[in-house]
Amino acid sequence: MKLEKYSMGIGDRFGHQGKAQLSALITAKSEGIHVIPVWNKSNREHSIIGTVPADTRAEAEAATAAMGWTDAYYVDADHINLNNVTPFIACSDFFTLDVAEAIGKPCDKAALDKFVRRHSNLTGQLSFDGIEQTFDITEDIIRRIGSKYLFAVQEAGRIYRHLVSAKGQGNFITEISMDETDTPQTPLEMLFILAAAADEGIPVQTIAPKFTGRFNKGVDYVGDIEQFEKEFFANVAVIAYAIRQFGLPDNLKLSVHSGSDKFSIYEPIRRALKKFNCGLHLKTAGTTWLEELIGLATAGGDGLKIAKEVYAKAYAKMDDLCAPYATVIDIDKHMLPSPQEVYGWDGLTYAAALKHDPKCELYNPHLRQLLHVGYKIAAQMGNRYLDALAEYEDIVAACVKENILTRHIRRIFI
Question: Which residue of 241, 290, 302, 335 is most buried, as measured by CB atoms within 10 A?
Fold first, then answer.
């Protein structure tokens, strides 16, 4: 099973927007941009909403059948580990092995010594095609990197072999994720992470590092854009080298997690795709859920009432909702409107405050981040929320399609 060049993780919290999401990809394909959908949903999201992994597979199959999608598609067991992977095995064919928590844990000394010896041929000055930067590598540097990352990659190997024993080799796509950590991986660290992955026999097809800067949920990138571009280009060059040097899959590519709405770095990413003719996996996380709220608010009536209630309850439970996402949100509570103020808004005002349009004076990134993590409130509404999605399906679907097609696909892949 081989992941195509361009793919997009189209997270869908409530499993109702599969057709709208595919509609965006179908239009993109008619414009010459072929992006493969990967439905992704984490164990945490399933537990909060009350769904199971099989529901994600069911949504994907129903949407592709309804829309006549005959190209590839995948279902991602997002951010799994050995403790939670079992329910995903039967219904997933893409596994994001999240080993961020294992970074820095000590590995066996003999294994570390072996790793250093195995890759000592890389010592000296190393350069990569496509970038000017060179790297001076010593055995001490290899040991330092191995001390930090070898145990984490070994953990990925343990998860991978568990999956092989259950699904068979070659029957799923493997991604390694190290993005949910505080410290970015350097391109040189990426090189030896990939070396370790090859040593473990993991046919990794996409890797999600932690990049420099803030990748907050649903809002733009915060950081030095020039530094990001330099880092991104270097990572792409390192991956191309690692494919040749370590015999990794020739379609190995970068995965950008929480990549939705990072408008300021889409142009640097686009330049890298063109320069290196490389692939990309972009995860759009929970922005589809936000488009549902925008659609409901725009529709007015009960839709607007639900959108206002979601905000009011999210505001009241802010601390609990934000705690699991503390590393990927930055909310200034003083910049949030009160629930009383929001209850006085019309639908267009609510939609404008939530919709990610930095040029709009009503846009509020703090409100947007709070609602991004506030999907638990809608989940607690049960059928009331789901029935509203069905009642206002056309309006919501138009918002979902525009978000994926106009703000994401056309900005990155053209």
Answer: 290
Please say whether the beta carbons of 400 and 291 come within 8 A: yes
Q: What is the dihedral of CA 220, 226, 232, 235, to 10 degrees?
A: -150
Token readout for 29 is 């394909």
pLDDT tens profile 140-164: 999 999 999 999 999 999 999 999 9
Instruction: Write the pLDDT tens digit of every residue in 228-245.
Output: 999 999 999 999 999 999
Tokens read off for 160 = 């991978």
Residue 69: strand, helix, or coil: coil
Distance CA 154, CA 169 (A): 18
CA 208 – CA 121 distance, rounded (Å): 26
Determine the residue type at 404. I
Instruction: Name the pTM for this structure.
Output: 0.96
What is the rounded CA–CA span in Å between residue 405 and residue 414?
Answer: 11
Angle CA(94)–CA(97)–CA(99) in degrees, nearest 5? 170
Alpha-carbon dihedral of residues 217, 403, 27, 8, nearest 10 degrees? 0
> 7 forms bridges with which residues in the sheet?
36, 281
Give, in degrees to the nearest 5, the angle at Cα 265 between 259 and 271: 110
Both tokens assigned to 368: 């947007």
Which residues in the chain are classed under CATH 3.20.20.60? Answer: 6-285
Class in CATH terms, 6-285:
alpha beta
Q: CA 206 to CA 203: how far, in whole Å?
A: 9
**CA-based angle 381:387:391, to the nearest 5?**
140
